[in-house]
Amino acid sequence: xxxxxxxxxxxxxxxxxxxxxxxxxxxxxxxxxxxxxxxxxxxxxxxxxxxxxxxxxxxxxxxxxxxxxxxxxxxxxxxxxxxxxxxxxxxxxxxxxxxxxxxxxxxxxxxxxxxxxxxxxxxxxxxxxxxxxxxxxxxxxxxxxxxxxxxxxxxxxxxxxxxxxxxxxxxxxxxxxxxxxxxxxxxxxxxxxxxxxxxxxxxxxxxxxxxxxxxxxxxxxxxxxxxxxxxxxxxxxxxxxxxxxx
Length: 246
Prior knowledge:
Layout: H1 2-23, E1 37-54, E2 63-64, E3 69-70, E4 75-79, E5 83-95, E6 100-104, E7 107-119, E8 126-144, E9 151-165, E10 183-184, E11 187-200, E12 205-215, E13 220-221, E14 231-245
Antiparallel strand pairs: 1-5, 1-14, 2-3, 4-7, 5-6, 5-7, 6-8, 7-8, 8-9, 9-11, 10-13, 11-12, 12-14
C-alpha cells in the first residue's frame, strides 16, 4: 500500500510539471534572447535643448570692429527652447547573462538646437536655429528584470560620443555678424541613463525606451559674433524616445 502511494505521488508530480510546461508561454521574440549576440534597428524621436552659462558681461551690446560701431542693443535674455528631431539606428547586443547585456546602438541623428536672444530694442529679437546632423556612437549596459510571460522591464546607462557631419554646424566667416550662428564643437561626449521594457512577439522583440543624455563639458565653440560672445558655456540636454526592434 505504501509503495503504491509513493508511485501515485510521483505520477502526480510528473503530470503537474508537464501541465505547467504546456501552459507556460513559448520562447517568443524571434530568438533574440536565445543567443549571446543579436542585432536589430531603432527609430527614435529626439528632443534637445541647451543649458546656458553666460559671461559676466553678457548684457553688453555687441561692437563690430568691421563697421566700427555697436550693431546690437543691450541683451535682455538668452534662452533655449526644446526642439524636435529624429534618429535611425542599429543595435548590436551581447548577452553577459540572463539579466545583463552590453549594447552598441550607433545612430544617425537629425536634430535642431535653438537659442533665442531678446534685446532692449524688441525689433532685434531673434532665434538662432542650428540645424545639426550627428553620428551618435553609444555604448551602454542594460540590466533586465526576470521575464514575466512576454514582458520584462529594464534600466540602462552608458556613454556616447557624437560627431557632427555636413556643413550645418559651420558659420561662414565672411557673413555679416548678424547672420552668423553660434557654433558647436565637432565632437563631444555624453552620458546616458534610461529605462524601458522588452515585449516579446512571435517573430521579434520590441523595446520601447526613454533615455536622457547630458553632454560632458562645453559644446560651445568660441566665436566673434553677437550670439557667441555673451556665452561662456553650453551643455546639450537630450530626451530620446526609441522603438527598438530585435
